[in-house]
Amino acid sequence: SKLTNLGHLEMTWRSRVRFHPLLVRILHKSRLRYYGKPEKKMDMPYQAYFEVADGSGMMSMVLWDSLCPEWYHSMKVGTVLLLDKYTIKTSYPFKTHPTPGDSQMKRFATIEISLNVRDPPTEINIIPEEMVKPEWGLPEVKYRFITRSELDDLPNNHSCDVIGLVTFVGRAERARKREHSEDFWLYRWAHAIDGTSDQPFILELFASSQPDVFEHIHPMTYLVCTQMRVIQDLTENPSRTVYLTTSNESQIFITGWHKGQPYTKDAKVKNFIQWMKSQSEVDQIKKTVIGGYYPFPRPPDSFLKY
């Protein structure tokens, strides 16, 4: 059928009501958001953002309401979609944006694709990877993997992807989203090593829309975290510790979930696998810890400094 592309959509969307089908690849995926309120009677108040791209550039796509439980888990990073009967809206100005793996890619930030259950009902088709043709010109998923030896030199809030062997995972903890609020964030601390430094990655992992992964992070699993943010303690504390925290677009993968993921082709991921093959599993197990209270960032040595 006759297809359009994202660049053409941006130029012509105001003058059209009906749009030609779109063929795009998912490059980023946000956590699922629940926006229900007691006074509003809505069946499925869910929403999820994706960043999708074709040969012309990248644009946000929003999945609404009852389409979320139906499609969210099938729409993975790397999935190719054929979309029809979608709508175009001006972008929501306050949403977060992932850092693209390809810094040269053009971003269409003024509009977003809206997938709705009605008015009109969007038609979504997932194209199996083996049927995707090179002549479609769809971009590959690119990553920004770093090693532990590179981490200390990165600026605060820098976005990156990491892979490591889990050596510690703490218990799940809760933090209030806002003071006096009844809503909580669920998170846990983890350490992961990659052989490039004596220090581990310290990871603050918030529960995203992947409970099956979040609950099964154990020592000795290969852990991949994407779209992590660097947190540098900007005070003059000489014992400052750098750690990484999840963002709205982070995805977490553990052993058993890596097969077929686009990052398996990345050079730094391959280097880590090679390093792991040279390690003794028995020696590594001796260094692992699970559970317990993990006070971090650590308080100062004395009350005076506190």
UniProtKB/TrEMBL annotation:
Top-level taxon: Eukaryota
Pfam families: RADX (PF17659)
Stated name of the protein: RADX protein
Native source organism of the sequence: Dryoscopus gambensis
Matches recorded under InterPro entries: NA-bd_OB-fold (IPR012340), RADX (IPR040893)
Gene3D superfamilies (UniProt xref): Nucleic acid-binding proteins
An example molecular function term from Gene Ontology annotations: single-stranded DNA binding
